[in-house]
Amino acid sequence: MRKITIKILFSVMLTGLLWSCNDNSLEPTLAQSKDLEQNAKTLGDLRTVLNGGYDRMQHPSYYGRDMIIYGEARSDNAFSNANSNRFVTVSQMKMIITDGYPNNTWNKIYEVIGNANIVINKQGATGDAAQLDHLKGQAYAMRALGHFDLLRLFGQQFITGQGGMGSMGVPYVVTFREAGGLFPSRETVQQNYDNIMKDLDQAIALMNSSLDNQTKHYFTSYSANALKARIAAYFKRYDIVEREAGIVVNSGKYTIATAAGYANTFSQNSTANVIFSIAMNANDNLGNNSLANIYRGAAYGDIVALKDLYDIYDSADVRRTTAFISQNGASTEEYRNIGKYPSTASPIDDIPVIRIEEIILLYAEALLANGKVSQALTELNKIPANRNAVTYTNVTMQNILLERRKELAFEGFRFDDIARTGMDMPLVDNLRQRYGVVKFGEYNYAFPIPDAEVSANSNIKQNFGYK
């Protein structure tokens, strides 16, 4: 049974519609929308719909695997060795408009957003009012995260000459296939940012901490604060980062993992340092399509770490031990992620999406940007002090990014850190990193919009550089 229990509370027809969205459009059909509107009548019904959104987030095309690998294979952390021909075009930054990766992830995220929209827009559902608000708050957070993930993959914000915040973002879908919204256009990046933050503010306003689930598998008001900090940092809004990260860091709700307990973050569920995670157990088993098996599985194992990553760790750092990163066979230039997502035979490890360590480092980044240097150094050093690593004598953006690379390796953050700070793509191993010299702002810093979407919707324009 899933950790996120999916109860059949209403008609078989409704349940079938929830799991059977058309993969060639942003959301299910208008007819399905009407059926769902008629059949989702109670708190229990809406909980089932929202659990369907959480369930879809587990999919390999989203947080079950691909979303995380996109941030590692396009960086100086890792590459695809093409063992099973997976993530080759991603790793080489040579995707085309018919490539399966952008197509599958685009569709899956909009399916998640579709579930969230049903809950957000439902009027007159019966049940406890506070519980209904709390559920709707989770849906707002889900919708915000989905759109941000789409924006950081497909948005043109970092592409030279496309207009920065005025460039093309993604369609911000807020209805479940209602008339007039069947063929949405791409908003600007600024509009996307504003809508994402508005949704997160709604999430925080609606959720009640007394109703939070004790597992980390559901959104909470603190996870919404954490997301606001992450997204604001992406756009260098450090006033917002400091405020929102500070709320989470100073809440007393979360504790940094110690060196001795660090491995538990990835092998146990709902540990004290996790703010939000994707639930996984035996029934959710993704098999060879799991993160564990793309990192080190015998059948797949395509994603291999580069020596440059291994070399940044201090000799006594727990993150450098063979429990976490180990030489790939006889090669002295390749390494394997061992400690994160460790179960290969039956991949049942939860997938942390937000950890307190990330938010502490965002807090340090904001404090530094806002001129609070001493406090920033204190926050930065909380991480190496709990990893048996050497602490920093001074705080710089370079040191914060270095610690983020150490702490968040294999979790999907590296590409975005490179992009949001205006860096060229680091080329540390020309033999294995097949993308060659890629300068900041080149077209392939963004994914292509799926050709199927462009063909089906004349309001959707293709990204610069893709034909």
Q: Care to describe what's here?
A:
- It is found in: Cell outer membrane.
- Residues 67-231 form the SusD-like N-terminal domain.
- Residues 1-25 form the signal peptide.
- This is RagB/SusD family nutrient uptake outer membrane protein.
- Helix content is 44%, strand content 5%.
- By secondary structure, it is mostly helical.
- The strands form two sheets. It has a four-stranded antiparallel sheet.
- A hairpin with a 6-residue loop joins strand 4 and strand 5.
- Helix 3 (43-57) packs antiparallel against helix 6, helix 7 runs antiparallel to helix 8 and helix 8 runs antiparallel to helix 9 (221-234).
- The longest helix is centred in the first third of the chain and has 26 residues, at 129-154.
- Mean pLDDT is 92; it is low at 1-31.
Question: Brief description of this entry?
Answer:
The chain is mainly alpha-helical. The chain contains 18 helices and six strands.
What would the keywords be for this entry?
two-stranded antiparallel ribbon, four-stranded antiparallel beta sheet, Serine Threonine Protein Phosphatase 5, Tetratricopeptide repeat, 467 residues, mainly alpha, 2 domains
The chain-level structural class is mainly alpha
How many runs of DSSP E, i.e. beta strands? 6
Overall pLDDT level: 92
Report the major sheet. 4 strands, antiparallel
Termini separation: 45 Å
Gross morphology is: globular
Low-confidence stretches: 1-31
Provide the CATH topology of the largest domain.
Serine Threonine Protein Phosphatase 5, Tetratricopeptide repeat
Count the DSSP helices.
18
Strand content: 5-15%
The name of the CATH architecture of the largest domain is: Alpha Horseshoe
Subcellular location: Cell outer membrane
Signal peptide: 1-25
Main location: membrane
Protein name: RagB/SusD family nutrient uptake outer membrane protein
